[in-house]
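Re: that backbone. Tokens:
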């Protein structure tokens, strides 16, 4: 038996039927709608799905992986189901309201996994309590609470506990501290990174932190306004660098390929260089392909705002997920040599001006982190990394 799901996207603020997924028990295929293919403004939903008629397989690599849950979402979905779910079941299981980008799935005229599943800010303490239980691997968790958390999770990448949340009618992403594994205030430092990047001209999402009381303890929660929605709620097509390069989750990748796609797609490689430099300075080691993305703007794929940038102490090394010219041991000098500047299309005068702008901002990072709730220990943890960054810039 074959199940048929309609797939829609947004073109020029209008939601259109793009094609259909045909799913059997063990496999699936996608086929573009003929009317969509005839449109002059039609675009590939993913580079792996060329604009031509006929069925295209969804295995072994799912071209719609950005619509599937991240590592955290998979953990929650599998827990809610009480078993390990297959890839397409996981993808269709993401709540439609919080699904990433503009790709949506429909069955029998209704959005797949639709419903009012996105909580409001006042619900977060209860949501975080259940997230903590799942992170700790507890077995006695209320099924209703797990399903509620399941409806709040989305498809934005990463293993960190998180949930979509409504604030004033807008869709935001709330990222939680882990009950086990966060040795310092990770959320305060991530917020500080966004503050600093925004100061030096790197595009970042609107963000804020709040202290939420959970089980008698105050926790720092980072809120990010969803950048794949317009101010009036229209969905914006999005693909991660992983999807752009037809890679699989977990592949580190290379800046060479990301820059190549960005240039071909109409994005600004200079903005990529700024992000790479900043990430090398602060030890953003977990800079894999799913942590970079592109938004559809007109007829081009523009860089999305930067996200998931987290510093690591110097003791954790400089081995990045995303390599440069095959080398994953990266520092500031990796991106300031002639070959790197030529790759990103950055003039030496522009590079020097940016590095000059970075000096006072790096020095101010502890102040940014403290403003978001970082305690003395959390600040001291990053002292070695920030001293190394200041030395590299001097």
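Recovered sequence:
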């Amino acid at each position: 038996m074959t199940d048929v799901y309609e797939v829609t996207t947004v073109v020029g603020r209008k939601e259109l039927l793009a094609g259909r997924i045909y799913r059997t028990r063990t496999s699936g295929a996608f086929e573009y709608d003929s009317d969509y293919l005839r449109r002059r403004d039609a675009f590939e939903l993913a580079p792996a799905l060329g604009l031509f008629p006929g069925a295209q397989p969804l295995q072994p690599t799912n071209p719609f992986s950005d619509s599937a849950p991240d590592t955290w979402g998979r953990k929650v979905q599998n827990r809610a189901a009480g078993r390990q779910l297959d890839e397409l079941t996981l993808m269709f299981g993401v709540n439609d309201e919080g699904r990433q980008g503009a790709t949506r799935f429909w069955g029998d005229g209704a959005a797949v996994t639709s419903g009012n599943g996105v909580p409001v800010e006042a619900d977060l303490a209860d949501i975080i309590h259940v997230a903590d239980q799942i992170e700790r691997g507890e077995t006695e968790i209320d099924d209703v609470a797990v399903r509620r958390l399941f409806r709040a999770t989305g498809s934005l990448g990463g293993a960190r506990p998180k949930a979509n949340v409504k604030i004033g009618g807008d869709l935001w992403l709330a990222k939680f501290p882990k009950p086990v594994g966060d040795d310092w205030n990770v959320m305060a430092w991530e917020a500080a990174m966004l503050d600093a990047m925004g100061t030096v001209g790197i595009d970042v999402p609107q963000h804020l932190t709040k202290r939420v009381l959970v089980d008698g303890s105050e926790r720092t929660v980072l809120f990010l306004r969803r950048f794949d929605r317009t101010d009036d709620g229209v969905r914006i097509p999005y693909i991660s660098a992983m999807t752009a390069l037809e890679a699989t989750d977990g592949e580190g990748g290379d800046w060479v390929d990301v820059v190549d796609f960005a240039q071909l797609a109409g994005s600004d490689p200079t903005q990529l260089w700024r992000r790479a430099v900043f990430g090398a300075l602060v030890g953003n080691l977990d800079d894999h392909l799913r942590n970079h993305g592109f938004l559809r703007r007109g007829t081009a794929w523009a860089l999305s705002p930067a996200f998931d940038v987290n510093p690591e102490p110097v003791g954790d090394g400089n081995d990045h997920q995303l390599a440069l010219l095959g080398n994953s041991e990266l520092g500031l000098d990796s991106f300031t040599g002639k070959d790197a500047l030529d790759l990103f299309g950055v003039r030496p005068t522009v590079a020097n001006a940016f590095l000059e702008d970075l000096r006072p901002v790096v020095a101010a990072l502890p102040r940014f982190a403290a403003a978001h709730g970082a305690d003395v220990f959390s600040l001291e943890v990053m002292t070695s990394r920030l001293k190394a960054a200041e030395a590299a810039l001097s």
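Residues 238-393 form one domain. The chain has three domains: 3-70+80-108, 121-225, 238-393.
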